[in-house]
């Protein structure tokens, strides 16, 4: 009597078996025989890998947009499955990593977070599955905390960008971590002409310095999240500067490529900002004159140190656009507005060389500009996460005050909203 082997099964049944496997086990199954290996790694098309990826708990990449609101290129389904599976493995057990592998893991997670389907409105139930998946993978951020101490410069930028979009990790709730972020944000050495006195690279390139942005995020977030200490192990903290707020908000019928206000500038915004006593700022920086040495942040640990957190309302309107040859479908947006109906604001929004959305504006009274702000839209275009950045004066004198800000659009509840979405 002839014995039936796995090689005798019809290809359709073999594929169904493969689709029942966790992607982690597909590679092991491929080693059972040459026929299975050929079916998995030498198929005539990628329909098997596409089905494997779509069986995962994320979004279909074909429905996703990048951070600027552009459709994604045709996916390499095999590569997507392999990269996210490897990232999942290393998040669970970092001891299995290979040298030089961290950058690819961070890139993979950023692609998951930054490429999502847009939601047509703020008060809908169209939450991206990618963001839910990323939150489930990273849980309380222990992986981000674990890898933070030993990162190469390029890895630091990727890690800081992901950390910013993730929100607060367990370590962020410690006094030492908060002190480090304050020390970075209030160090005057991080504000120079070559980075436009904002959270940008110090090489004049205009690229975002995500290490700076993440420090700003941490300082601001600790005023937003109730001071109840770190969440329980494995718990993800949801607040308006975390993963669920990274999704682009693009109303139905709006084509960004044809929209004058593609960044969603027009409307009412809330600007929250922090500052410390100017004398304390100067004393702190007097002890940190070196541009490269370790910062000495003892002043932020003093029980008497006070950091003020305030919010103002800003009504903005678009006053014009200018072509941007590097980004033809995303022109420079020029805007103006009023702060609490008594001060004026003028500024612009444009795309940076590294395809991030940059905000610049000046504000003052009686036609005189006093304050200058530089920021970055976090995550997807028009996301409710908002803009994080830094403020100082328009003079950019050596001892001018500096501080962080968070700019977030106000979305009134629709009349027919019942709180079920």
Short summary of the structure?
This protein is of the alpha+beta class and 421 residues long.
Name a few traits of the molecule.
13 helices; alpha+beta; 8-stranded antiparallel barrel; 421 residues
Word description of this protein:
The structure is a single chain. By secondary structure, the chain is an alpha+beta fold. It contains 13 helices and eight strands. Strand 3 and strand 4 form a beta hairpin. Helix 2 crosses helix 3. The N and C termini lie far apart (61 Å). The mean pLDDT is 91.
Overall geometric form: globular
Q: Outline the biggest β-sheet.
A: 8 strands, antiparallel, barrel
Count helical runs: 13
Taking strands numbered 1, 2, ... along the chain, how are they ordered across the largest sheet? 1-2-3-4-5-6-7-8
Quote the average pLDDT.
91
Q: Which percent bin holds the helix content?
A: 25-40%
SS elements, strand count:
8
% residues in beta strands: 15-25%
Structural class: alpha+beta
| Pattern of helices and strands | HHHHHHHHHHHEHHEEEEEEE
Rg from alpha-carbon coordinates: 24 Å
C-alpha end-to-end distance: 61 Å
Low-pLDDT runs of 5+ residues are none
List the helices and strands and how they pair.
Layout (H helix, E strand, L loop, with lengths): L10 H9 L3 H8 L3 H8 L5 H8 L22 H16 L9 H13 L14 H10 L3 H6 L5 H14 L8 H11 L24 H15 L42 E10 L1 H9 L11 H4 L5 E16 L9 E8 L3 E9 L5 E9 L2 E10 L9 E7 L9 E7 L12
Antiparallel strand pairs: 1-2, 1-8, 2-3, 3-4, 4-5, 5-6, 6-7, 7-8
Helix pairs in contact: 2-3, 4-5, 5-6, 6-9, 9-11, 10-11
């Amino acid at each position: 009597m002839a014995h039936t082997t796995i090689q005798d099964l019809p290809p359709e049944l073999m594929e169904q078996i493969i689709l029942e496997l966790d992607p982690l086990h597909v590679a092991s199954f491929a080693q059972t025989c040459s026929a299975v290996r050929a079916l998995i790694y030498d198929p005539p098309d990628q329909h098997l890998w596409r089905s494997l990826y779509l069986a995962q708990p994320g979004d279909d990449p074909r429905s996703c947009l990048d951070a600027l609101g552009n459709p994604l290129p045709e996916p390499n389904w095999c590569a997507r499955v392999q990269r996210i599976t490897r990232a999942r493995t290393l998040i669970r057990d970092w001891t299995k990593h290979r040298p030089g592998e961290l950058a690819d893991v961070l890139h993979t997670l950023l692609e998951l977070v930054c490429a999502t389907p847009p939601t047509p409105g703020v008060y809908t139930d169209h939450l991206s599955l990618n963001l839910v998946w990323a939150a489930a993978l990273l849980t309380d951020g222990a992986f981000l905390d674990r890898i933070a101490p030993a990162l190469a410069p390029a890895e630091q930028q990727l890690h800081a960008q992901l950390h910013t979009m993730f929100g607060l990790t367990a370590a962020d709730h410690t006094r030492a971590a908060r002190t480090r972020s304050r020390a970075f944000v209030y160090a005057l050495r991080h504000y120079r002409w070559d980075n436009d006195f904002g959270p940008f690279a110090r090489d004049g390139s205009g690229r975002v310095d995500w290490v700076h942005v993440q420090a700003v995020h941490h300082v601001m977030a600790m005023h937003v999240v109730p001071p109840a200490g770190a969440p329980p192990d494995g718990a993800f903290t949801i607040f308006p500067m975390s993963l669920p707020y990274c999704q682009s908000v693009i109303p139905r019928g709006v084509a960004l490529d044809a929209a004058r206000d593609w960044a969603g500038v027009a409307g009412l915004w809330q600007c929250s900002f922090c500052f410390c006593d100017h004398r304390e700022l100067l004393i702190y920086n007097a002890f940190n004159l070196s541009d490269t040495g370790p910062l000495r942040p003892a002043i932020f640990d003093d029980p008497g140190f006070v950091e003020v957190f305030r919010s103002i309302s800003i009504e903005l309107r678009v006053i014009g656009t200018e072509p941007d040859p590097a980004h033809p479908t995303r022109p420079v947006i020029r805007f103006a507005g009023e702060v609490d109906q008594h001060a004026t604001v003028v500024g612009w929004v444009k795309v940076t060389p590294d395809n991030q959305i940059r905000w610049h504006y000046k504000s003052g009274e009686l036609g005189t500009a006093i304050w200058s702000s530089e920021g970055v839209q976090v995550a997807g275009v028009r996301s409710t996460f908002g803009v994080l950045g830094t403020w100082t004066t328009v003079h950019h004198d050596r001892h001018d005050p500096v501080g962080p800000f968070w700019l977030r659009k106000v979305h009134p509840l629709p009349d027919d909203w019942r709180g079920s979405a």
